[in-house]
Amino acid sequence: MLEEHPGIFDAAVVGVADDVCGERPKAYITAKSGAHIDGNEVIEWLKHNGISGFMLPREVEVVRGLLPRTSCGKAKKNVMKEWAKGGGKRSA
Asked: What does the angle CA 64 – CA 92 – CA 72 come to, to the nearest 5 degrees?
């Protein structure tokens, strides 16, 4: 759903620790060339485009550069989970 946003080039969602639910979704996105993306605007866009409330990320972090991917093209969610914990750099 995130990649359907007109300003988003790439996106991945990971589960991060949450005191109430145990885990909640957090999205990492990269913007298309020339697009200005704001995380809060993306959350509002998702709300108005039919995403279920439990799937709605509470945080959307815009990453400069490309999201980390494996040689097969899958998102390296373990890297992004480390980012969520406060470790690692945000540029691949």
From this structure: 120
Neighbours of 20 (CB within 10 A): 5
Which of 60, 65, 59 lies closest to 90, judged by CA? 65
Q: What is the DSSP string of 15-72?
A: EEEETTTEEEEEEEEEEPTT----HHHHHHHHHTTT--GGGS-SEEEE-SSPPPB-TT
CA distances from 47 to 2, 9, 26, 64, 69 (A): 11, 19, 15, 24, 27
Assign 13 a pLDDT band (cuts: 50, 70, 90): very high
pTM: 0.89
CA 48 to chain centre: 17
Residues 16-33 have pLDDT tens digits of 998 888 999 999 999 999
